[in-house]
Amino acid sequence: MNAATEKLFPLLEPVLALARRHASEVDGEARFPTESVLALRESGLLGLTVPAESGGLGCGPLEFAEVVSALAAECGSTAMIYLMHVSATMPLARAAPAAMPGLLSDVATGKVLASLALSERGSRSHFWAPVSRAVAKGGMLRVRAEKSWVTSAGHADIYVASTLTEGADTVDLVTIPATTPGVTVSGDWHGLGLRGNASAPVTLDVELPSTARLGGAGGGFELLMETVLPWFNLGNAAVSTGLARAATDAAITHATAATFEHLEQSLSALPTIRAQLARMSIEVTGMRAMLRQTADALARQGEDTMLHVLGSKAAANDAALRVTDAAMRVCGGAAFSQHLGIDRYFRDARAGHVMAPTADALYDFYGKAVTGQPLF
């Protein structure tokens, strides 16, 4: 951790302890990590990136990445819930809805857990292209949408949702309190990985004041590309990095402790095992370096920022697949028996890989960017 993040450790450590204690249970039962999320609320870390003038901690991308990575090493589901909260908070900080003047302060105090409701059944993983359309009438907005894969569904206090602007092919972002009539969680989440993040479908059939919109009409796409995407990609890369680091640490510990009694040597005495561990460790070092580079690029907003944003998630997702796969092979049956936790890192890494924008889509965007083609 850098010096700034180390100052956050007294706030973070109790959250990490609870995440660690309940991670196996959260995964096994596919339940929401209530204990660690409550600790996040009480710690002030929900306001990590909220400006100080709104009562937040005023931290930047590097601190965010470090916190998410540390959470992921203990509980991937908790890390993803936190990542989605911050990704929803950042557009609120940039273009707060006039209908909710105290919202950022409530986020900073832990009163509000936020999440994104972007993907739709009709456009699937193309989260930037909703097919639902708002209808405006008398200062109100009617939003009907079938949202997919909404993290913290049924647990978040507000949802930042997307919809097409009435009468135009532009996008609006709106803030919807979870208690709004017409917000319905459509099912439970029982996935292969990240089993505790409550990523369920949400049906919206709501009426909102037009002032629930973030920014002006049609300004949602800019917020998605310039705010939501960079922070989400950075955080998702941080989740992959934390999972890969935890899998590597667990594999090293096991290989060092496990012994061949008939040979009187540890598993790590085998050159092939040491080579695998070395490759894993080197890969994690590279992931952490790229994560810091991306956080720095996002903080300074240079011409290369978008390349870092596009590349970080794709590269980290792929690296996490390789590292967690190697950890499973190094530890063999011990990994499959679940007591090492490596199987959880293995499954969680694969869930992050297919989250929109998927790694394959990001490679395409990156290729367009480096060849001078428009992304959309």
From TrEMBL:
The Acyl-CoA dehydrogenase/oxidase C-terminal domain, residue ranges: 218-355
Keyword annotations: FAD, Flavoprotein, Oxidoreductase
Oxidoreductase in keyword set: yes
Keyword 4Fe-4S: no
InterPro entries: Acyl-CoA_Oxase/DH_mid-dom, Acyl-CoA_Oxase/DH_mid-dom_sf, AcylCo_DH-like_C, AcylCo_DH/oxidase_C, AcylCoA_DH/ox_N, AcylCoA_DH/ox_N_sf, AcylCoA_DH/oxidase_NM_dom_sf, Mito_Isobutyryl-CoADH
Acyl-CoA oxidase/dehydrogenase middle domain ranges (all copies): 116-205
Family annotation (SUPFAM superfamilies): Acyl-CoA dehydrogenase C-terminal domain-like, Acyl-CoA dehydrogenase NM domain-like
Requisite cofactors: FAD
Similarity field: Belongs to the acyl-CoA dehydrogenase family.
Name of the protein in question: Alkylation response protein AidB-like acyl-CoA dehydrogenase
Organism expressing this protein natively: Saccharomonospora amisosensis
Organism lineage string: Bacteria, Bacillati, Actinomycetota, Actinomycetes, Pseudonocardiales
